[in-house]
Amino acid sequence: QVQVVESGKGLVQAGGSLRLSCTVSGGTFRTYNMGWFRQAPGKGREFVAALRWSGDITYYADFVKGRFTISRDSAKNTVYLQMNSLKPEDTAVYYCAADKIPHSTNLGFSDQYDYWGQGTQVTVST
Question: With bands split at pLDDT 50, 70 and 90, how would you rate the model's confidence at 12?
Fold first, then answer.
């Protein structure tokens, strides 16, 4: 059974940085495309960033371009989301997800993903 576990939740001031981690177990991590989504209170889940299984192609939502970086360490079965220049509007529960189809398209859509973590809270104060 594939398990996805996020870590790195925290409270940070605006302009600060935080790194989220997501570890996948029970599957073939090296073949999974990985994505990060977030959900703010009263809003729907939205795409943040994705990284192809090969590690060489990344996708970002416009609102995080230049601030967030997604990366992976296949030796540790872990994907990271480095978040810099955080804003109060980045406050949300952040979810990590794994897509088991290596050549999937539409990695910006939550329906593409097969396995999800439980989410980790990120709060950015003013």
Answer: very high
